[in-house]
Design goal:
The chain is α/β, with parallel strands linked by helices. The chain has helices at about 15-30, 65-80, 90-95, 95-100, 120-140, 150-160, 200-210, 230-235, 250-260, 270-275, 280-285, 315-325, 330-345, 350-370, and strands spanning about 1-5, 30-35, 50-55, 85-90, 105-110, 140-145, 165, 185-190, 215-220, 240-245, 260-265, 290-295, 310. It has a 7-stranded parallel beta sheet with strand order 3-2-1-4-5-6-7, sandwiched between helices. Strands 10-9-8-11-12-13 form a 6-stranded parallel beta sheet, sandwiched between helices. Strand 9, helix 8 (about 230-235) and strand 10 form a beta-alpha-beta unit. Helix 11 (about 280-285) crosses helix 13.
Length: about 375
C-alpha cells in the first residue's frame, strides 16, 4: 500500500519526533510512504521513506495557504494513485480535500496540536483549523489527535462523533532513550521550544530558589525559541545553568539519561491542556523523575499512583517543588527513576500509536476497495 503524507512541518527539528517515529513505524510494517513537505530535496535521505520537496517563500500567517496551493498543483501534475491513502496536516488539508474526494482517494486528518502561536498568527490559524475538522465531519472521514482531552475539545467545538477521532498519544523510542549513571550534582532539565508562552523563563528562577534552600543543583536547558537569548544571558552569568541549542535525538538522549528531574513548565492554558508532550515520555524513558504544572496535558492516567511524578498548581510550583525535592533522598530518586523507566516500557512505546494508525489506514483503503 502507498501512503502520501502532506505536512507543513519540517522534519529537521526537535518537534518532528512524532512524525518521524510514526512514519518509520509505518515503513517498518511494509507501507510505501512518501513525505511531501517544504524540507530541501535529499534532506530525508537518512530516513526510510521517499520525499518530495515543496519549497515556499511566504510570510508567517500565509505559509499554509502558499504551501497548500503548491501541494495541490503537485498532486494535479502527478495524478495521485487511486489505491493510495493520504495523511493531511490540518494546515494544508483544506487545499487538498476536494481534489482527493473527486478522485475517491481516502484521507485522514493529522492534528498534532491546535494553533499554539499567540497573537495575530493564532487568530489567522484558528479558522483554518476549524475548517479542516468541519471537512472531516462533512465528508465522514477520520482525524487523529494526541490525547483524550484533545478529542473531547474537538467533539465540543466541531460537533464531531468520537468514532471519527483517532487518539495517537506521543510515545518514545525505548532503544534510543535509556537510563545511565546519573551526574553527581542534582540536575534539572528542560528540552523543547524555548518560547515565553511555555513558562521556561521561570526555570532559572526556580533553580535559584532550589539553591537558596540549601540544595546543590544545576539546570540544563535545551532548545530554541523566542526567549533563547534571555536564557543564554543567564547561562553566561550563572555557572550552574547550561544552555544547548537544538540537539539531535541521539545527543539529547545521552544528556537526559544523566539527569535527575525533567521539568514540564507549560502553564494551564488550552493549548497545553490538549497536548501530549513528547518530553514527558522521553523523561520517563530516561529514568527521570518529573516535576511540572498540574493540568490534563501533563498528567497520565492513574496519575495519583505515580510517585516519580509531581504536578503542582502554578502558584505552588516553586515552593511545592522544593519541598518535594527535599523529601527525596538520592536512593529514593534512583528507585523512582527505575519505576519511571518501567512505566515507559509498559505504556509509552511508539508501537501502540503505530498500530492504531496502521489499522485506520488499512480500514480507509478497504472501504474504497469495497
Amino acid at each position: 500500500m502507498k501512503v502520501f503524507w502532506f505536512t507543513g512541518r519540517s522534519l529537521n527539528d526537535m518537534c518532528s519526533t512524532t512524525q518521524t517515529s510514526l512514519a518509520s513505524g509505518l515503513v517498518n510494517r511494509g507501507i510505501e510512504l512518501m513525505m511531501i513537505n517544504p524540507d530541501e530535496q535529499d534532506s530525508h535521505d537518512k530516513w526510510p521513506w521517499s520525499h518530495i520537496s515543496i519549497p515556499i517563500n511566504a510570510r508567517p500567517g500565509f505559509r499554509s495557504r502558499a504551501l497548500g496551493k503548491k501541494m495541490l498543483t503537485w498532486c494535479e501534475e502527478v495524478d495521485l494513485e487511486r489505491n493510495s491513502v493520504c495523511l493531511l496536516d490540518w494546515r494544508v488539508a483544506n487545499y487538498l480535500i476536494d481534489y482527493l474526494e473527486q478522485r475517491n482517494i481516502p484521507w485522514i486528518l493529522i492534528d498534532r496540536s491546535p494553533p499554539a502561536d499567540s497573537g495575530l498568527l493564532s487568530l489567522l490559524q484558528w479558522p483554518l483549523w476549524r475548517k479542516s475538522w468541519k471537512m472531516v465531519r462533512e465528508k465522514k472521514a477520520k482525524g487523529c489527535v494526541v490525547s483524550q482531552g484533545h478529542q473531547e475539545f474537538i467533539e465540543r467545538k466541531i460537533g464531531m462523533n468520537s468514532a471519527s477521532i483517532i487518539v495517537l498519544p506521543a510515545g518514545v523510542d525505548l532503544r534510543l532513550f535509556h537510563t545511565s549513571k546519573k551526574l553527581q550534582t542534582l540536575t534539572l532539565v528542560y528540552h523543547g521550544k524555548l518560547d515565553k508562552n511555555r513558562g521556561v523563563l521561570a526555570l532559572p528562577m526556580f533553580l535559584q530558589k532550589v539553591n537558596n534552600s540549601g540544595i546543590d543543583a544545576q539546570l540544563i536547558v535545551i532548545g530554541d525559541g523566542d526567549c533563547y537569548e534571555e536564557i543564554k544571558k543567564i547561562s553566561l552569568e550563572k555557572e550552574n545553568v547550561t544552555l544547548h541549542s537544538t540537539l539531535s535525538q541521539s545527543d539529547l538522549s545521552v544528556i537526559l539519561s544523566e539527569c535527575h528531574i525533567g521539568l514540564l513548565p507549560m502553564p494551564n492554558q488550552k493549548v497545553w491542556r490538549l497536548a501530549s508532550p513528547l518530553k514527558r515520555s522521553e523523561y520517563a524513558a530516561s529514568g527521570l523523575l518529573i516535576l511540572g504544572i498540574n493540568h490534563r496535558g501533563h498528567s497520565f492516567e492513574n496519575q495519583e499512583n505515580l510517585e516519580w511524578m509531581k504536578l503542582l498548581r502554578r502558584h505552588e510550583f516553586q515552593d511545592g517543588g522544593i519541598n518535594w525535592i527535599q523529601s527525596l533522598g538520592r536512593k529514593t530518586m534512583l528507585k523512582l527513576g527505575m519505576d519511571a523507566r518501567r512505566f515507559a516500557e509498559e505504556n509509552l512505546s511508539w508501537e501502540h500509536s503505530v498500530d492504531v494508525l496502521e489499522k485506520n489506514i488499512h480500514s480507509c483503503s478497504n472501504c474504497i476497495t469495497e
